[in-house]
Design brief:
The protein is an all-alpha fold. It contains 14 helices and no strands.
Length: about 325
């Protein structure tokens, strides 16, 4: 435990801070000059607020996670030496687990609540990388195999930092396609724009953190074709960081109140986001559908009730689909 002080010596985030700030400023300037509107003030301020909260939460839990990793590492009878090849293997192991942690965060609603904040913006810029939910640290559970495999916590800590920093530069529209060999192996801005797209063909694709070949191996790869539409399929209308972080958690707890069995509660938590699993959800969706149909049908009924054709020719013309008024 006396080695905990070394954590501050191997933290590299503060070294990257000037590069991150400079990148944001350059991207904003280019966007203004080219009239691309990469940034929107309220959206940017929300990203800063969420990023600040994430930094505070991460710093508060750093020692907890390091201690847990050290306990597992000390408990197993094997160890991988802290060497260049150990670091390379450790980085690949961390990236593999990041792929699955990311994928499960899209496929199960409980974990989606820790990740939805990152997808809530309708912009794509470097600042989006700051929108990490304050509840995301619970995904540390996905990385417990790393110390169990024999990687010491310091190697794990550095590998994870590098993987997080790599993710920063792929959040941009400034960089288009890169050389084919690089695009085939590594995650690029083109790949990650697809991941943030809400276009039907782009949803739940390209989960890779540093290496895109995981997606190619496990059938979740999609190349960038048409321009992505960023954001959620059901957009949020708030820029409040607290709402953006916790709104899905609130919805989950509301749905859990109406669960009639443990099976329903389990389905609410672990089925994909948007899955209807309770009677209350079905009734709510039915009411929404009925209200929508009423709004759509009302104008047509109004025309039918008030339009009195002057002659048969006019009546026949109004009966044609292309001439009928719709809501």
């Amino acid at each position: 435990m006396d080695q905990l002080a070394e954590l501050d010596n191997i933290t590299i985030m503060h070294l990257a801070a000037p590069i991150i700030i400079a990148s944001v400023l350059i991207e904003w300037y280019v966007g203004v000059k080219k009239k691309r509107n990469y940034y929107e003030k309220k959206d940017f301020m929300a990203a800063l607020g969420i990023g600040a909260g994430s930094a505070i939460v991460g710093a508060s839990l750093k020692i907890v996670f390091f201690t847990a990793s050290m306990m597992i590492y000390n408990a197993v009878p094997w160890a991988i030496p802290r060497s260049w090849w150990g670091f390379v293997v450790g980085f690949i192991a961390v990236d593999f687990l990041r792929y699955w942690a990311h994928r499960i965060s899209h496929e199960q609603r409980l974990w989606w609540a820790t990740h939805v904040t990152h997808h809530s913006s309708e912009k794509m810029n470097f600042a989006i990388s700051l929108r990490t939910s304050w509840t995301a640290p619970i995904k540390f559970l996905f990385f417990l195999p790393v110390p169990f495999l024999g990687f010491d916590p310091f190697t794990f800590f550095v590998c994870h930092q590098l993987a997080v920093l790599y993710q920063f530069w792929v959040h941009t529209e400034l960089i288009r396609k890169l050389p084919a060999p690089f695009e085939y192996i590594f995650v690029t801005p083109s790949h990650h724009r697809v991941h943030h797209g809400s276009n039907p063909k782009y949803i739940d694709k390209n989960y890779g953190s540093t290496f895109i070949f995981w997606d190619r191996m496990f059938g979740t790869f999609q190349k960038e074709e048409e321009k992505p539409t960023y954001g959620l399929t059901t957009p949020v209308s708030s820029y409040n960081p607290f709402y953006l972080v916790f709104h899905e958690w609130v919805d989950i707890f509301k749905d859990l109140r109406y669960a009639r069995s443990l099976r329903e509660a389990w389905d609410i938590l672990f089925k994909p986001p948007g899955t209807v699993v309770t009677a209350n959800q079905r009734e709510r969706d039915a009411r929404t559908t009925q209200e929508t149909e009423t709004i759509d049908v009302a104008p047509t009924l109004h025309v039918a009730a008030t339009a009195v054709p002057a002659d048969l020719e006019l009546e026949e013309r109004l009966s044609q689909p292309e001439n009928r008024r719709v809501g």
